[in-house]
Automatic annotation (TrEMBL):
Organism this protein belongs to: Nocardioides koreensis
Phylogenetic placement of the source organism: Bacteria, Bacillati, Actinomycetota, Actinomycetes, Propionibacteriales
Annotated TM spans: 50-72, 84-103, 134-153, 158-174, 180-200, 207-230, 250-271, 283-303, 315-337, 368-386, 398-419, 426-442, 448-468
PANTHER family: ABC TRANSPORTER PERMEASE PROTEIN YPHD-RELATED-RELATED, XYLOSE TRANSPORT SYSTEM PERMEASE PROTEIN XYLH
Topology of the protein relative to the lipid bilayer: Multi-pass membrane protein
Pfam families: BPD_transp_2 (PF02653)
Biological role stated in the UniProt entry: Part of the binding-protein-dependent transport system for D-xylose. Probably responsible for the translocation of the substrate across the membrane.
Region (Disordered): 1-22
Protein name as catalogued: Xylose transport system permease protein XylH
Ranges annotated as biased composition (Polar residues): 1-13
Amino acid sequence: MSATSETTKPSNESGGGDQSSGFALDIERQTIPGAFRSYISKLRSGDPGALPSVLGLVVLVLIFMQVSDRFLSKSNIGNLPGQGAYIAVIGMGLVFVLLLGEIDLSAGTCGGMCAGFAARAVFSGDLHAALPSFLYWSLIVGMLGAIALAVWLKAWTGAVVVAIGIVLILTNMIQHVGWAIAAAVCIGAAVGIFTGFLVAKVGIPSFIVTLALFLAWQGVLLFALTSQPIGTTDYDLWFNLANANLSTTLSWVFTIVVVAGYLAFTLWKSISSQRAGLAHDALSLVLLRGGVLAAVGIVLTFLANQNRNNNPYLVIAGIPYAAVIALTLMIVCSLALSKTTWGRHLYATGGNAEAARRAGIDVVHMKVTAFTLCSAFGAFGGIMLASTSHSVSLDLGAGNILLFSVAAAVIGGTSLFGGRGKPRDAVIGALVIVIIPNGLGLKPNLGVQYQQVITGVVLLAAAAVDALSRKRSQRT
């Protein structure tokens, strides 16, 4: 038994008790000192987690504080979620694929294409009439094919999601913004099913498949837009995703729900595990973690609820919708990965696909579902990007978007070799990525070349940490 745990064993004296079994049940109770020692041991074994990205974030903040005194202003900090939420969303989708040791280079352009279909439907009021006939029916047939593939590969949830998308398109419900956004995500899921099929079943390397699709979806976007960009500022729901805030009251409600939900879940987990005679966190450790989260949430919410506008007659306050969306998706994805059988199987497949297959895990199914989620998140990320840039442009999702999203996941701590990573990595990494152009933009005499160089150096450093930690973990 390691020093990080307190162990109690029921005693069997010679005169009583059941000695039919050859061993007693170990009950591990994780205390605050034990958790600290366990974390130090984890660092020494070559698993730094999000620590390098957090330290990098602190360094960048300190540097940009010296570059401009406006960097830590309320208005500038309040703009960060809207500027980087799309990176976090696409990056979270990429985490699922990176956990398998795969890559999806088409997530950005897939998002642009899906946003293009949504914008065309809302702008024209009738997607069938607005699109070239061959493109509209190719979309319908492609989604029907994705349903058939999903059923064959037992990806039932993917099949249902794509079916919902077909219904929305055929009934022209997508002339309304909310349903158009939902249909865009459904189209993204269909794309992911095809991508997963080509990688997992046909056996084409994911780099080649997604590179080809990266180029193809850019062309489809041009067809969907008929080579004319479409603005999103006139559609309140779409525009507000990256540009509006919760009210101050709802901001406190959101924080209370998150903190209370975390405390309730961790307390229930600790108590139920203790009653079942399993390893569990001590009450002191649970309360400490909940207290830290509550303190951070209260401080951030208080600051977010301050007026960020210099004009006192036009108040801009509250937690940005972009931050709420990113945090909510992070919580849902974290629960899916850590508390479900599917999530445990995904980690197992990424750690050793052959061992997972021998253990009875359907590796093909896991890969298909991972790519489906990645493309669906990419589609919603494209919607968020269109909100940030105020339009669905002809090159939406191309350029550096995918590179920044992959960089966000890797910088945050997700391994490029598979088997290690969390959704929070994409959020932390996205914050690092968006701070660089934000801070440099406050110094007009610093050109865009500085942004490219610094971002590249940060990504290279993150990849180096990943490779070195992997080597160290193999030696221990």
